[in-house]
Amino acid sequence: PISSPLVDTFNRKHNYLRISLTEKCNLRCTYCMPAEGVPLTPKENLLTTDEILKLARLFVSQGTTKIRLTGGEPTVRPDLLEIIQGLGELKSQGLESIGMTSNGIALKRKLPALKKAGLDTLNISLDTLDRDMFGIMTRRQGNGFDKVLGAIDEAVRINVERVKINCVVIRGTNDDQVLHFAGYTKDHPVNVRFIEYMPFDGNRWKSEKMVPYRELLTRIESIYGKLTKLTDDKNDTTKAYQVPGYQGKLGFISSMTDHFCDTCNRLRITADGSIKVCLFGNSEVSLRDLLRQDQSDEKIVQVIGNAVRRKKRKHAGMFELAKQKNRPMILIGG
To answer: Which InterPro entries match (predicted)?
Structure first.
């Protein structure tokens, strides 16, 4: 059973932990990285392999059943395999699922070893099926687009349990791609999720660039006909659909127009070791400092519990969020 430190004052049980492994990335996506770049945290202030695994063990001992590794880009971290192996050892202690979110650029050849080490689920960020647009959105030229598609195919080939594509939809940039992605699910058994564009520091968010999920659904149904509504998991952030007869699925993540704060079950640890109880909240508590002061496990669990209890009922809404100070997405970790 989930013990009390991970339950907040609204009785939400936080059994899902997202750990950012790095702030570095080999892409420069417009909605994630400010145009002027970001000052990176000095390496000595980032969590080490051992610190990440120690925190993961503590969270699992308190009832965490799902861990997802994010970034930055997790594959730029040289100890990624070691971290996943270490997390894999926690599966005998209650951890049920290890996931990772990656841009797929440097992933393909690493995948078999990561899966063997314990990686269960994979989310790949891909915002367009158009090669030229990929270069514009990622601010990177070259053959990255083919590498990402290759990584997705490899994940399917080696039977990674759940392969998802995350697509951030920005009006006037890539919203026409939604129909192409719907077509992509005909022969690809992956779950494509369309994410409403969200305000973060430096991404120049404007409400008119955000396409509400209902509008996307209408656009897809106008071409592909009525979609089949699939059942959503209790804590899932995705509204799930399928084009009848297609192998893959479609999902909509409506963080802005229809938030899911009431069923939120996730906590985040940033690459520099702070706990964030809400993606959009700007309150953080450093767990790294406690680890480096050799504080007891009990003390660290107590601090985690205090942070969780301060979690608010819901985030501020998109117009308020656009005015608030928060980290850029690259420094939060998805």
So the answer is: Aldolase_TIM, Elp3/MiaA/NifB-like_rSAM, MoaA, MoaA-like, MoaA_NifB_PqqE_Fe-S-bd_CS, MoaA_twitch, MoCo_biosynth_MoaA/MoaC, rSAM
The secondary element (H helix, E strand) that includes residue 121 is strand 121-125
Give the full edge-to-edge strand order of the sheet including 238-242.
228-229, 238-242, 249-253, 191-196, 162-169, 121-125, 97-102, 66-70, 16-20, 266-269, 274-276, 284-286
Rounded-to-integer distance, Cα 184 and Cα 127, Å: 13
Bridge partners for 287 per DSSP: none
Q: If we measure between CA atoms, which residue out of 223, 225, 232, 277 comes closest to residue 252? A: 232
* Torsion 15-255-18-278 (CA) sign: negative
Q: CATH code at 89?
A: 3.20.20.70
Q: Which two tokens stand for residue 42?
A: 């000095």
Helix (H) or strand (E) holding 55: helix 49-61
Q: Which two tokens stand for residue 51?
A: 């610190």
Residue 226, exposed/middle/buried by CB under 10 A (0-12, 13-18, 19+)? exposed
**How many separate domains does the chain show?**
1
Bridge partners (DSSP) listed for residue 240: 251
Q: For the chain, how are helix, strand and coil distributed in percent, rounded to 5? A: 35, 20, 45
User: What are the residues whose beta carbons fall under 8 Å from the beta carbon of 261, sequence distance 6 or more?
Assistant: 313, 314, 315
- Altogether, the residues listed in the chain come to a count of 334
285-318 confidence digits (pLDDT tens): 999 999 999 999 999 999 999 999 999 998 877 7
**pLDDT tens digits, residue range 220-258?**
999 999 999 999 776 678 999 999 999 999 999 988 888
Can you read off the two tokens belonging to residue 115?
Answer: 């899966």
* Kind and range of the H or E run holding 184: helix 177-184
| Domain range enclosing 56 | 4-331
